[in-house]
Each structure stands twice: as structure tokens, then as C-alpha cells.
Amino acid sequence: MSKPFAGVRILDFTRYLAGPYGTYQLALLGADVVKIESHEGDETRISPADPKWAERKMAPSFLSMNGNKRSITLDLRRKEAIEVVRRLVVGADVVWENFRGGVMDRLGLGYEALSAINPRLIYCGVSGFGRTGPEKATAAFDGKLQAMSGIMSITGEPASGPTRAGFALCDTIGGITAALAVASALYQRTHTGRGQLVDVAMLDASLAFIAGPVSEYTVAGVEQKQIGNGSVSRKPTASRFRCGGGYIVLAVLTEKQFIGLMKALGRADALADPRFKDWAARTANEPALREIIETAMAGGDPRGWEASLTAADVPCGSIWKVDEIVGHPQLEHRDVLQTIDSRYGPMRLVGAGFRLEHGSPGIDREPPTLGEHTEAILTEAGYTAEEIAQLRRDGVA
Prior knowledge:
By secondary structure, the chain is α/β, with parallel strands linked by helices.
């Protein structure tokens, strides 16, 4: 059975992370995503993490979110390139961009101009602050959004100050929000026959992902603070604990789980201690409770304790590094990291985070080299071989 978005054509003007991550989600689900790049290419192609891959203009950060896509190069400063885009729009379902507000309009490729060519077109613009409001023209990047959204203010330990997540969290949130928005617009079009503008603001999306902390303040006036490795449940046994030579995270939230934890640690005697008689008392005596837990787990190692506690039905998790988790048999069983054949040999890339009984998402085509499909895409748009050759000679394509 075909994938859910088979037959959907997306013109992808996005770059960096928030845009490409969103279009990648639909590419995994069968959409024909045509990546429109400058002659220099998406900036993530030359990310410096690995010089060899950057020299190829195929840096791992680019590879991670551009599988299943095709690439065409166009110099959008040239009127001939704008005409190419306008011809491509006739057969497109979605135009997706993440330029600063106004850039596409100045090129003559904004929503109003393109929807006049194709009324069924869905136009998705991803930006830091959206198309309206006092910040609409402000440049944005992941760090700014993590800082501004309140996410950094609740992350990390108070002693170390506000802390960023270890990956581009707000970019990813913006991308996945845009994917949901475009999927919604495509579905709605099946009822109305009409395209529409999709306006995605990364700040809005970030707040939507921390709805719990926001609502605690707006409804109950609870001021949010950094909670380190604690849980939003605020229970003292839902946190990170020292364990042998490393750490383990406990998620002990119920009375049954607390009893199971104390017994598994060999400290059933603590259940009769009035300091730990209920959650209020346990919270008030958190330092003493932590000492009991960490002393009991001082021997052994995190993975061993994880196995023992899990067997006792005590929720917990040892800390896995990225280079460790990618080899976990659970991920292999689920085919989360998919091995594909590429011009550089076998390549493992992360696919989608879900499976469908029919038409499941997956990587079918390796990420494209810069401009790899230019000729094929122009041919599909009705250009002759001679016209394509002229566009190349003129530096347009």
C-alpha cells in the first residue's frame, strides 16, 4: 500500500533545521519533496562536525533530515529562476519556506502571488514569531527561542543558571508543528478544495510544548523555577540519583512503587519511618530519603540496578549515551535507525517515530547531492533539453 502522502508535491525552500525537519516528516510519509537550493546549497550541508562530509556538502546534520528528497539549484536573484518556480507551482500542493518575513514576497513568491497561480496551493511559512505582531520582523534562532520561551528558565540546576537543551529543541518543535499544520491543511483541502496560508511561529509552538508549566502560572500563579533533574510531579523519588559509578533516574510516583523501591533496595525498614509516611513527609525529608536511596545503590552499577528495579516493577532508567542507544535491540526491532544504500556506502539514518499498519513511513531514497535532480525536475515542468542547457549556461539553474 502507498504511503499517506504519496502524490503530494512539496516545493521546499527551507534550510537549516526548523524547515527541513518539518518537510522531512512528510517526505518519510511519501510526499515528493523538491528541495530548492541556491548554488551554494543549504547551509547545513557544510556543518563542520566532520570535515570530510562537509567537504562533500553532505554533512551529517544535512543527511539527518533530507532523505527521500530531491534537489534542484536555482539562483532566485534571477527573474528566469522566479519563472521556473512559478511553473513548478502549477503542479505543486505545498510551498514551504522558513525565510525571515517578507523575503518571499520581495521575490514575487509570497502566498498571494503563488495562490493566484494555484488556488489549491498550501503555503507554509515557518519563522520565529509568525507573520503578525510586534516581533514579526525579528530574526530568530534556536538559542533565542529557548531563552525567550521560558524553556531555559526551567532547565538545569539553579547554581549553574539557565541551561539550553542539548539539541536544537525549538527548531525541532517548530518543524514538527509545521508538519502537523501542513498535514491538517492538506486534509481540510479534501473537504473544501481550497488551499490556504499556514503561519507557524516557533515561539508559539514552543509555548504549546510547555503547556503544563505555563498553565500552572496562568491558572494558579505558580512561579516556575529550575528543577534540575527532578520531575514535574515534584515527588522526591522522581529524580536523578547517584548509583555506583554513575547515575540512574527514578520515576517512583505511586505508593505501590515507593514500597517496591524500598524493598528492592533492602530498606523495607524505611517504610515504618515516620519521616517517610506519606508524600508530604517524604518531600519535607527529601535529603534523608535521597541518602538512603543513594547509599543502597552505592554498590553495583546503573545497568545492574536498572535490571533489578525493573524486575521489581519500579520505574527507572540508567543513562545512555547517543553512541550506546543507537545499538539498543529495541531500536533495531523497531527499525528506527534505517540502513540505506548510498553512493558513500551503507548509511544509518533516523526515520520516523511511529509506525502505521499500512503505508508506514520510511527512507527510500538517500539524501540528494546539491542540484542532483535539477534536469529531471525541469523536464517535469515542461522545459526542453535546449532550454535546460541555456538555464545552466546562464547560471540560473
